[in-house]
């Protein structure tokens, strides 16, 4: 069985990181391909409207395999040039695939999310944490830096000063602090985590799928565009949205005081 266990629930795809005996450590050398394939399959399937990602066992993901680091094997074997290339081929493939996911991603953080695990959790568009979750980027205590793009992502999620505190001190924070800092949307009792995540995913999946994917694109692109560029992209996408059957259904449903039934047409 591979790293990602997939379960389809209507228009929602549930991914479970399934390496519980190693606290869902990432990445093994094949994990880049696993994430790329899973994301590509979702992007190619217009019937999928949302993805929920969680971890098996007591952790979301503990991040890098410390024993592999110590032994300088697998991802960490060989010359600096070889290690760099594996980061690009494996680690970067994971985060690029998740960042390029076209449908909303809900991360249901069921336990510790450390290092790469924290940054993967942070790639969720909506992040819901169990009250047993914790977060950290403890690269400094290992004598390394974020090789996964976390130094770009984390300040955008929680602001520069808080990202600096997490990175420079190498300390972890609990779920309550993560919520206060904006790293997660909300904290829920552990027992209800997946119920909460699936309820949110269901609300997302009820929206018109073409507009949903375009809306996510606008939010992602808006991080790096200036206002004029965003206005131009918004106008182009809005013109396409106005021509969909789902747009007419949405307008009709509001006028008739009922919920819209969207097909993706």
| Beta-strand content estimate | 15-25%
- CATH class of the largest domain reads Alpha Beta
- The tally of helices reads 11
Compute the CA-based radius of gyration: 19 Å
**Overall tally of domains:** 2
Low-confidence stretches: none
CATH architecture of the largest domain: Alpha-Beta Complex
- Give me the count of strands: 9
Structural class: alpha/beta
Output the helix-strand order. Answer: EEHEHHEEHEEHHEHEHHHH
CATH superfamily caption of the largest domain: 2-enoyl-CoA Hydratase, Chain A, domain 1
What spatial order of strands do you see in the largest sheet? 1-2-3-4-6-9
Q: Which fold name is given in CATH as the topology of the largest domain?
A: 2-enoyl-CoA Hydratase, Chain A, domain 1
Task: Describe what this molecule looks like in 3D.
Keywords: Lyase. Pfam families: ECH_1 (PF00378). GO terms for molecular function: enoyl-CoA hydratase activity. There is one protein chain. The chain is of the alpha/beta class. The chain has 2 domains: 4-204, 2-enoyl-CoA Hydratase, Chain A, domain 1; 208-256, Orthogonal Bundle (Lyase 2-enoyl-coa Hydratase, Chain  A, domain 2), CATH 1.10.12. The chain is built from 11 helices and 9 strands. The protein has a 6-stranded mixed beta sheet with strand order 1-2-3-4-6-9, sandwiched between helices. It has a 3-stranded mixed beta sheet with strand order 5-7-8. Helix 1 (31-43) runs parallel beside helix 3 (80-99). The model has no long low-confidence stretch (mean pLDDT 96).
